[in-house]
Amino acid sequence: MNAFFWLFLFFPFIATAETPQTSQTPCEKLFEPIIQALRNNDAEAFSDRFAKVIEFDMFDEVKIYSKEQASQIANNFFLRMSVKRITLKHCSGKEYLKYAVTEITNAEDLLYRATIFVRIENDGAAVIQEVRLEKEE
Q: Per residue in 90-115, pLDDT tens?
């Protein structure tokens, strides 16, 4: 009977012990389709999420493009970049504006940091407003 006493005493602590977190946060879920498009080198799926006007800050050169122009740039980017691996490092923001910081490794094992800013539409869709790309040293 003494053994049952200890079991009931410590069972609540065992039941509430922390387990490894395998589920995604809402922010990570929001960016998952965008990151998947990058992972798959899918320029069309990536460009489908562009806003009507998008800002690209690539290697400290900032330019603003229409969605159509930005889609052409994304096509060229994916032809040259060939994403080998992408890792989501950080995701945060406000209710209507979120950003994700990722690390991208290309086919030549060069490392880049991409920051993607999205605006949350009324229907909950994430629309890419800005993409920053920097080469890591």
A: 999 999 999 999 999 998 999 999 99
Domain spans of the chain, in order of start: 24-135
Q: For the whole prediction, is pTM greater than 0.90?
A: no
Question: CATH fold of 24-135, please?
Answer: Nuclear Transport Factor 2; Chain: A, (3.10.450)
Provide, for the chain, the percentages of residues in helix, strand and coil under a 3-state DSSP scheme, each rounded to the nearest 5.
35, 40, 25
pLDDT at 18 over 60: no
Q: Let me know: does 31 contact 97? Beta carbons within 8 Å.
A: no
Which positions ≥6 away from 51 have C-beta within 8 Å? 67, 119, 127, 128, 129
Instruction: Point out the least confidently predicted range of 39-43, 79-83, 84-88, 113-117.
Output: 79-83
CB atoms near residue 102 (< 10 Å): 22
